Amino acid sequence: MKLKEELVEQARCHPLAADAVLALALFLLAVFVPNDHVQPSSGPGIVYAFEAIVFGALVFRRRRPIPVFAIVVVGSAVVISMQEGKSLVLTAAFIAISTVSYYAADRRMSIMAWLVSGFALGAGSAIGIGSVVRFENVSAFAWSGFAAAMGAAIRSRQEWFAEVEQRAIDAEETREEEARRRVVAERLRIARELHDVVAHHIAVVHVQAGVADHLLDTKPAEAHEAIAHIRRASGSVLDELGGLLDVLRQPDEPITPTAPAPGLGGLTSLIDSFSASGLSVDVRADGVPEAMPPAVELVAYRLVQEGLTNAHKHGLGTATLDFTFEPGALAIDIANPCPEGASPGRSGHGLEGMHERAKAVGGTVSTSIDGDAWLVAARLPFEPAV
Asked: Left (φ > 0), alpha (ψ -120 to 50) or beta: where does 116 sit?
């Protein structure tokens, strides 16, 4: 069984060699196996020559099905017209008919192959027998139709299997796409639920904070009760956020660190790390720093980090970093010389991320090229933190 499977696999991988072996085997059978019912009316040399042409053409039946069909059918008709009976060349003819029907573009071509081959082989048989009304003539016509139908059936079966396989692939892809869509929909639902939970508890905190502020001097006991409400509401929202964010987190995503988010206080170590890696950074500050919200400090830190990363990757080893503290705003300017023709903003998603981060806190980021220098200018407005 295993040997049979290996032979079938080898024949599938080497079709030309398989057809050559088939053609040689049929030719040897036609030449060396005696058939008492076949009496050549012409010399055996001519018959063998035509048989060699017929079986030899079978070698190329898959590469040139129509020319091989014409050669084999005509050659077979000639051979059986020179013999008073059946011949093994009819096997070659039926193989050629099946092949051209298998590769036919439509059913009409299969029917045409059947009719042409049936009449040609029937005429050859009639000439060889010397009679038109004989069973052999009708049999040649019928077997030609069977061969054409068999080739078309094999093609239809393979097309059906291919269609079933493609449907299975499409169904699997559709199932995966549906699963991804449901995951996205569920995440959106969770995000809406998160928004509702946070909005509710923050509203409670806001109202109770106003009550506590109003009653703190006149009714301390009630003020303390309002503060207790604030504590419970804030604890609830933290618990809800933790649970929902655990659901939203990817399975391979690391646990969120408990360290505080980086801010302007961490810029010194950040710049030192770039200096240690070979980037010389000239830092300048102008204006009076104001207390700013942690979110703005985080965005400022990330903008500086991304800007200096681009300067280190695409620049010439130096960069200037200017901070301008304005009333209610922080301006950050990064400049670094670049090699001729370089444009750091055209690769990767860093620039897009900088724009999105600044936009998240109501700020802006602009980039430009001034001579041989790449410039990044950011402005982050904020309400001074209390």
From this structure: alpha
Gap between the Cα atoms of 23 and 15, Å rounded: 12
What are the angstrom distances between the C-alpha of 281 and each of 270, 300, 315, 322? 11, 16, 12, 10
Q: How much is the average pLDDT of 241-247?
A: 61
Structure tokens at 46: 């001519």
SS3 sequence of 109-173: HHHHHHHHHHHHHHHHHHHHHCCCCCHHHHHHHHHHHHHHHHHHHHHHHHHHHHHHHHHHHHHHH
Cα–Cα distance measured from residue 30 to residue 89, given in angstroms and rounded to the nearest whole number: 8
Spatial CA neighbour of 136 closest among 85, 199, 190:
85
Exposed / middle / buried, residue 363 (Cβ in 10 Å: 0-12, 13-18, 19+): buried
Per-residue DSSP letters for 26-52?
HHHHHHHS--TT--BSS-HHHHHHHHH
pTM: 0.42
CA distances from 58 to 83, 147, 294 (A): 21, 15, 82
Q: Is the per-residue pLDDT at 348 higher than 60?
A: no
CATH for 264-381?
Answer: 3.30.565.10
Q: Which of 82-86, 229-233, 246-250 has the lowest mean pLDDT?
A: 246-250
The 10s digit of each residue's pLDDT in 89-100 is 888 888 888 888
Residues facing residue 337 across a β-bridge: 373
Per-residue pLDDT at 30 exceeds 70: yes
